Amino acid sequence: MKHTYLFSEGTWVATGKYFDESNNFTKVEGKTFITHRKISGYLMDI
Question: What is the DSSP code (8-state) at residue 33?
Fold first, then answer.
């Protein structure tokens, strides 16, 4: 599986449960957007 998290633009969504040290949990969710921009006229290739 190719790791593309930072190299490919897109939207990443996560949902689940967070457990603390006493095994109490709370539902969690998050979303992040990865975009690239040109710097000095060049798109950085890694």
Answer: E
The string of pLDDT tens digits covering residues 30-42 is 999 988 877 776 6
In angstroms, rounded to a whole number, what is the distance separating the alpha carbons of residues 30 and 24? 20
- 46 part of a folded domain: no
Q: What is the pTM of this model?
A: 0.50
Distance CA 38, CA 36 (A): 7
Number of domains in the chain: 1
**What CA–CA distance (Å, rounded) separates 22 from 13?**
27
